[in-house]
Amino acid sequence: MGDASNVETTDDYWGRDGLGQTILDALAASGKNLDTLTIDDLAPMDQFHPGGKEATVRLARLARLTPGLRVLDVGGGLGGPARTLTVEFGCHVTVVDLTESYVRAADELTARLGLGDRVTHKVGNALELPFDDGEFDAVWTQNSGMNIAAKELLYAGFYRVLRPGGLLALQEPMAGPVQPPIFPLMWARDAATSFLRTPVEMRALIEPAGFRTRAWDDVTADVARPGAASPAPILPQLLMGDELTAITHAQQRNRDEGRIVMVQAVFDRP
Ligand SMILES: C[S@@+](CC[C@H](N)C(=O)[O-])C[C@H]1O[C@@H](n2cnc3c(N)ncnc32)[C@H](O)[C@@H]1O
Fold it and tell me: Nearest-CA neighbor of 219 among 73, 95, 50?
């Protein structure tokens, strides 16, 4: 599958209407006061990757993010990582995501937390970033590149929007030593829409885009371990429906059999 179809199918695959309200209703039903919500209240619902908020904080520390940095979160989903970078690390974050219903929900949640002046949400394609050259100090991307085939183009775009001296922080599932992965995956029902490369292949395409590797951690045993924080069941259930049981089963086998590994990495843009 080429990337034109990525654009057409990503919204269909991931998108669901009314997500912001569904999340707020679920939090209210669990006894949270919606007028005093915090990023920790939201974390089980809006950190849409294995490892949850803990993994976000781990990557932010690995990247040594500091207050005032202008961060672009590519494929930022419901905005949990972006709000964490703002509240706990003092960054100003622009989130771009292809799935319109996520951008709407993310915007609602950001407004609810009163963070609208520091976190901005925008619909856009990671492969055609609608930003100026050198506009950001950091590009952040977490579990978002799996459906993207044109990775060279993706990393060239990250390089373009970073200022010299900027950094790229990523968390991505990658192809493990045992192939192929078992489907269905959280992001793809079959091999036609999943584009994982091995860690060696990933470095071999990110570094030629102009990046220098500063940190490279295989966090499979940590972030993707059984019992590690992950989205509250309500969110995957809502998004994946009846397929969730098969996805969860495949996820465990992919991890245990070395078919998929999880990496956190930080690169400098010289
Ligand atoms: C598993 S979610 C991760 C969301 C978020 N990064 C997080 O960790 O909470 C994957 C996200 O990637 C987005 N995505 C996939 N392909 C994209 C593309 N080409 N451009 C922008 N976003 C994309 C999806 O819309 C979805 O929100």
Answer: 50
